[in-house]
Amino acid sequence: MGDGRRHQVVVLVRAGLIPMELGIVHRLFTTATGADGRPLYTVRTCATAPGVVPTDTDIGIQVPHGPEILREADTVVVPAAVEDYLPQDRGRLDPEIRLALSRVPEGVRLASICTGAFVLAAAGYLDGRRATTHWKSCAELAALYPEADVDPGVLYTDDDGVLTSAGVAAGVDLCLHMIRGDHGAEVANAVARDTVVPPHRDGGQAQYIERPVPHESAPSPTATARAYALGHIGEPLTLDDLARQAGVSVRTLSRRFRQETGATPMRWLARQRLDHARELLERTDTPVDRVATDSGYGTGTAMRQHFREALGVSPSAYRNTFRGAHTSTRGLDR
Question: 126, 148 in Cβ contact below 8 A?
């Protein structure tokens, strides 16, 4: 926050809460610190009324706040609850939850973990937006809320300030994504290291969906191709190059990539190039043109175009945001 105020994260919980999902939000956001060691976020929990909220276990959670603190939020997170797994009626939303969400100021970032997406959908927040939820519930979400563009193959979505995630553990990916967007890859990576989780998981939830035919026990050709790509990220790799390394046809590689990662090979590679470039811009004073070469973009012009399409900013603006005014401007684009 430019004014020195910590970013306020408020978790809105309901009866039947899954405790792990609440713990994910508190643990990851409160672990994020700035260069001076100060916490970057404050996380608070609220319910429709203060008191003990029952969970899906034999314990209850003492919630100190009512919905009034939603007015102070910069980010609101809605975890899943047991009721989400019951048969859903279109538009069903507890009136008290609807009233609580009405307190959220316009422009506040909204996120759901797992089937918490049903709450956002029922409140209209997913209309016209890309969204996901646990793969077992994606078809139901899409059928009940056709206004939402439900993608069952990804771990999380981020559409204009409204975010959704797949199953419980995908809440980790979602929170790290938000931290990365707020404060850069270096801060998010530090949080990931502290919690002993990968800073960015390959692929989507497509790899976890139950299939009638078991996966082969042999090593995946996509793993070989991905390892080669990461080791040669600065080179102008093609789909043929990756298929050759994997020892399969382009068609087979593309099919396996979609099954195992939820993305095409080249879309996956584009994400790796972007992440590599972001980290170099944050951690080094390497000139932008050199960062472009090292990340496989070839030229600074090409990288600038990719940055504007993916992040909405130029590489130099990104570097200034996450490294501060004292970063060397040597070789930066104008």
Answer: yes
**Pick from 286, 304, 298, 281: which is nearest to 235 by CA?**
298
Cα(234)–Cα(134) distance, rounded to whole angstroms? 35
Quickly state the pLDDT bin for 291 (edges 50, 70, 90).
very high
Choose among 135, 153, 328: nearest CA to 257. 153
220-257 pLDDT, tens digit each:
778 889 889 999 999 999 999 999 998 999 999 998 88
CB contact at 8 A, 24 and 175: yes
CA distance 110 to 139: 22
- The span from the CA of 96 to the CA of 214, in Å, is 45
Q: How many Å apart are CA 41 and CA 1, to the nearest integer? A: 9
Model-level pTM? 0.72
Interatomic CA distance for residues 128 and 3, integer angstroms? 33
